[in-house]
Design a protein that fits this description.
The chain has 450 residues and is of the alpha+beta class. The protein folds into two domains: 303 residues, FAD/NAD(P)-binding domain, CATH 3.50.50; 112 residues, no CATH class. The protein is 30% helix and 22% strand. Strands 1, 2, 6, 7, 8, 9 and 20 form a seven-stranded mixed sheet that branches. Strands 12-13-11-14 form a four-stranded antiparallel sheet, with helices on one face. α1 packs parallel to α11 and α11 packs across α12.
Length: 450
């Protein structure tokens, strides 16, 4: 006799109807939800954590990268090139003392944020704009209506399942989860190989003035520090698989944000965060490495003699997983040559930043920027699903530039307008005109024609 297994959940399923559904509350999802809600539409935002912020907060990436032009040695004053929703966010963060002034990062600048201020700012913004937020909700499937048309999702919550129906759904998961669930085309890295994850951590009780006097204002540590890391690793004193350390002063007194780990598998391969076993291994190895680097910094860096290991990210930092296959694709050459486009909805001057080996590779685009077209967020298939954030349609190296926080705010700003335009004018998403979205963005402060 064969025993039959039955999957059971007797809790009632709640039904929610909304105009626009946004899945994921990172920079892109937050911007998309608030922008669409400002157009007078009902917007629902699902987020798996109890706060918005995505990789910037849960992964503790800690910076708003991509705001400024790059110049050799970061010469001159920082020149901002990204505008729009990000300005509203920055203003709200500054009101909470949640941002530093521009901090040098190689040949450009970035802003370092305080993660609690980010969470509170996001809460304020979604409430201000009337977004319905459901925290601690994990999507477990997409709702299909008429073949490939995505009509919403089913999410798991502690009260039971929630079925959400929407006219337009925005995948801001960072991992193109909805596209994968719907069976729509996606790609993964360079022939399936992705950039390694990292565990970012914060050190407290640092004499930041002494630290800066010893190593300078550039958050990318000098060669002397890299050589000391390599020597300690070679001697077996510590296990420090990456030699280049990025250490940023934060808005908190006496604190450094530390991006320096390199998490690879026990078998030496790059771990893929889409694989459950790999992601689990990355979390455990990441925390172990964080403590090793903290101990090395405490013993070897000026100003860090009494440093404490404050915390690590809630999750390991994920740089890359799936990309959608869009009606357009950002090419490596577009980034390298600073290509400009009339159908652009965002711009970036961030370098191609590839994290592999003991030293990351940075390829700078000086005194220039490139454009990202709307088509990178519109799928080849499906008339009601849009992407935003780092899962845009892009080649491997192009994505290594286009994935950062300031650009994700821009993508969300654009896709929020695109989704609202689709609903209000009853336009299928693959029939949206980039010129119309660009006009709305410029009217909303994006300064794309400036």
């Amino acid at each position: 006799m064969t025993n039959q297994m039955q999957l059971l959940d007797r809790r009632p399923t709640e039904m929610v109807t909304t105009d626009i559904l946004v899945v994921g509350g990172g920079a892109a999802g937050l911007a998309a939800a608030c922008t669409a809600a400002r157009q007078g539409l009902k917007v629902t935002l699902l987020e798996r954590y109890g706060f918005c912020g995505g990789a910037a907060v849960a992964g503790l990436s800690g910076t708003i990268c991509g705001l400024y032009l790059a110049r050799p040695d970061a010469a001159g004053k920082p020149e901002k090139i990204v505008f729009g929703f990000v300005d509203e966010f920055i203003a709200a963060m500054k009101s909470r003392d949640g941002l530093t002034e521009p901090v040098r990062y190689g040949d450009t600048y970035t802003l370092v944020h305080e993660p609690l201020a980010w969470r509170e700012t996001a809460d304020e913004l979604v409430q201000r704009h009337g977004v319905q937020v459901i925290y601690h909700a994990t999507v477990i499937g997409v709702q299909l209506d008429g073949g490939e048309r995505v009509a919403g999702v089913r999410a798991f919550t502690k009260q039971g399942a929630i079925d959400i129906r929407a006219q337009v759904t925005i995948d801001a998961s960072g991992d193109a989860d909805l596209f994968a669930m719907a069976g729509l085309p996606t790609s993964v890295g360079a022939h399936g190989k992705v950039q390694n994850p990292t565990m970012i951590f914060r050190m407290g009780n640092v004499d930041v003035d002494r630290f800066l006097a010893a190593y300078g204002s550039d958050a990318i540590m000098p060669d002397s520090v890299s050589k000391a890391i390599m020597a300690a690793n070679a001697a077996g004193t510590y296990k420090l698989p990456r030699a280049k350390a990025f250490l940023f002063p934060t808005p908190r007194d006496n604190e450094l944000l530390c991006n320096c780990t390199r998490i690879i598998g026990r078998d030496g391969r790059e771990l893929n965060p889409l694989v459950a076993a790999d992601l689990t291994e990355a979390e455990i190895e990441g925390r172990r490495q964080a403590r090793q680097y903290w101990a090395f910094f405490q013993a070897n860096l000026a100003g860090c003699e009494n440093a404490t290991l404050n915390d690590t990210g809630v999750q390991v930092g994920v740089r890359q997983t799936r990309q959608i296959v869009g009606i357009d694709t950002l090419q490596n050459q577009d980034v390298e040559t600073g290509r400009k486009r009339s159908d652009a909805i965002a711009r970036s001057a961030w370098p191609i930043e590839l994290h592999s080996g003991i030293k990351p590779r940075l390829s700078w685009l000086y005194e220039n920027y490139y454009d990202i077209p709307l088509g990178c967020f519109i799928p080849l298939q499906s008339e009601s699903l849009l992407a935003t954030g780092r899962c845009l349609s892009a080649q491997h190296e192009a994505m290594a530039s286009a994935r950062v926080t300031a650009q994700c705010f821009s993508y969300g700003h654009a896709i929020g307008h695109a989704a609202a335009l689709s609903v209000k004018e009853k336009i299928e998403v693959r029939s949206l005109r980039a010129s119309d979205v660009r006009t709305l963005l410029n009217e909303d402060g994006a300064q794309l024609d400036a």
